[in-house]
Design a protein that fits this description.
The complex is a heterodimer of chains A (about 120) and B (about 110). By secondary structure, chain A is mainly β. Chain A is built from no helices and eleven strands. In chain A, the strands form two sheets. In chain A, strands 2, 4, 5, 6, 9, 10 and 11 form a seven-stranded mixed sheet that branches. In chain A, strands 1-3-8-7 form a four-stranded antiparallel sheet, with no helix packed on it. Chain B is an all-beta fold. Helices cover about 0% and strands about 60% of the residues of chain B. In chain B, a hairpin with a 7-residue loop joins β9 and β10. Chain B is globular, with a radius of gyration of 13 Å. The chains are: A mainly beta (about 120), B mainly beta (about 110). At the A-B interface, β5, β9 and β10 of A face β4 and β5 of B.
């Protein structure tokens, strides 16, 4: 079991659909992350929220829209995705306090398939 | 930019020790991590080491850091079939604590 919970575990959607990925953590972490991982590759950072504000956007296309409603929740809204967006989407959280680089804790991911 | 390199594949017999190696280029790295990813799962944090340390042991896991050579290794003692997975090393550069650079990943196969 992980302390970062992601839903749904699997998602199949068409290119014209709108869907959302959800992530929740109750560790009191104030930094949350979205990563994209293709098969046999390391995760690639997409977005970072720190204290509920977007602090890093790694030039992600606008068809991906992140949202951080509160310190425990992180959403990723999807619209008009392309087949190459099919991947495992991972959420992570960490505690960026007091200058310490605390490790990131990951969820089990959402496996996304675009038809 | 930063590069973190690992060998792609390692095969060991059950009960033997496994050593997974990693080299990195950013000399300002502050924390270095080892993550394990089993098929269909997310990344599980195994252990991490601060850059002013040269060794950390945690049960069957031993992490060695050679900062001069920018070389990190993970030794798994008494390797079990449940250790079969992909192992990623990762670094956090100084001042960019939110950006973690992952290595290419090493697939560990444990032969019964």
């Amino acid at each position: 079991d992980t302390e970062v919970t992601q839903t749904p575990k699997h998602l199949v959607m068409g290119m014209t659909n709108k869907k959302s990925l959800k992530c929740e953590q109750h560790m009191g972490h104030r930094a949350m992350y979205w990563y994209k991982q293709k098969a046999k590759k390391p995760p690639e950072l997409m977005f970072v929220y720190s204290y509920e504000k977007l602090s890093i956007n790694e030039s992600v296309p606008s068809r991906f829209s992140p949202e951080c409603p509160n310190s425990s929740l992180l959403n990723l809204h999807l619209h008009a995705l392309q087949p190459e967006d099919s991947a495992l989407y991972l959420c992570a959280s960490s505690q960026p306090d007091r200058g310490n680089n605390q490790p990131q804790h990951f969820g089990d991911g959402t496996r996304l398939s675009i038809l | 930019g930063e590069d973190v390199e690992q060998s792609l594949f390692l095969s060991v017999r059950e009960g033997d020790s496994s050593v997974i190696n990693c080299t990195y280029t950013d000399s300002s790295s502050t924390y270095l991590y080892w993550y394990k990813q089993e098929p269909g799962a997310g990344l599980q944090l195994l252990t991490y080491i601060f850059s002013n340390m040269d060794m950390k042991q945690d049960q069957r896991l031993t992490v060695l850091l050679n900062k001069k050579d920018k070389h990190l290794s993970l030794r798994i003692a008494d390797t079990q079939t449940g250790d079969s997975a992909i192992y990623f090393c990762a670094e956090t550069p100084s001042g960019g604590y939110q950006k973690v650079t992952f290595g290419t990943g090493t697939k560990l196969q444990v032969i019964p």
